[in-house]
Amino acid sequence: MLQGKKIVVVMPAYNAEKTLKDTYAEIPFDMVDDVIVVDDASNDNTYLVAQSIGIKHVIRHQKNLGYGGNQKTCYNQALALGADIVIMLHPDYQYTPKLIPSMAHMIASDLYQVVLGSRILGKGALRGGMPIYKYIFNRILTLSQNIIIGEKLSEYHTGYRAFSRPVLERINYNANSNDFVFDNQMLSQIFMAGYPIAELTCPTKYFTEASSINFSRSVKYGLGVLKTSIQHFLHAKKWARFELYQSPKL
Predict the structure, then answer these.
(1) CATH classification of 7-245, choosing from 3.20.20.70, 1.10.8.100, 3.90.550.10, 3.40.50.970?
(2) 3 state DSSP class of 61
């Protein structure tokens, strides 16, 4: 625990058997209370590896629900375990678990309710080997989003995120897409609810085993991001109403 708050790390996993152990080994267990791995019907031995290294809370989807669907299970389970702070860490070892204490401290100290690990601050993405086309795509999308919704983040597309319990209980993340655009819908919901978002410089690594989406999926994702930003703008202006901004049904 940290300042009396229970910290739960959630790892949405898909074909992560080669990297899960290394990621798990760097988690600071002097602070983290529980780890949840949700295996989204992987084609490899992710589920068995998670069990073999001693993770108590391992869930396996019987069919692939997608990246967003995986996260829904992660957050629902973390809240059910009584988490006060929930940190999403990809098990592909692209993001270092060594930032967990910094992210958790910012929330436990009530400085922020949401913290992102940004690959763009400090040029971490390019140093870590992010393909240049992905970097350019990231920058164009982020600029567009900042303009449309009137916020200012260095990037909206990082998979390293920390949330307080009240945030997860207030936003309707279960109404979001099961695909990759889930991440952006969630940030839109958080801004719509009035929460500021903090960012920390995060080094990152790109290598063969690190998860990534191909070009066609990237285009689909980009279009979904722009759609979410436009929905955010219309909802904020009260020109339209969208389910994802409604209070969750308890």
Answers:
(1) 3.90.550.10
(2) coil
Residue 52 to residue 85: CA distance in whole angstroms: 26
The C-alpha atoms of residue 236 and residue 5 are separated, in whole angstroms, by: 33
**Backbone Cα Rg of the chain:** 17
Rounded Cα distance, 54 and 32, in Å? 14
Is-above-0.90 flag for pTM? yes
**Neighbouring-strand partners of residue 8:** 34, 86
Task: Enumerate the domain spans of the chain.
Answer: 7-245
Q: Which two tokens stand for residue 152?
A: 């200012």
How is residue 226 written in tokens?
């722009």
Contacts of 19 (CB under 8 A, 6+ apart): 91, 92, 93, 209, 210
* pLDDT, tens digit (0-9, with 9 covering 90-100), for 119-143: 998 876 777 777 788 889 999 999 9
Q: For 194-229, how does the pLDDT look when each residue is reduced to its tens digit (9 = 90+)?
A: 999 999 999 888 766 665 677 788 889 999 999 999
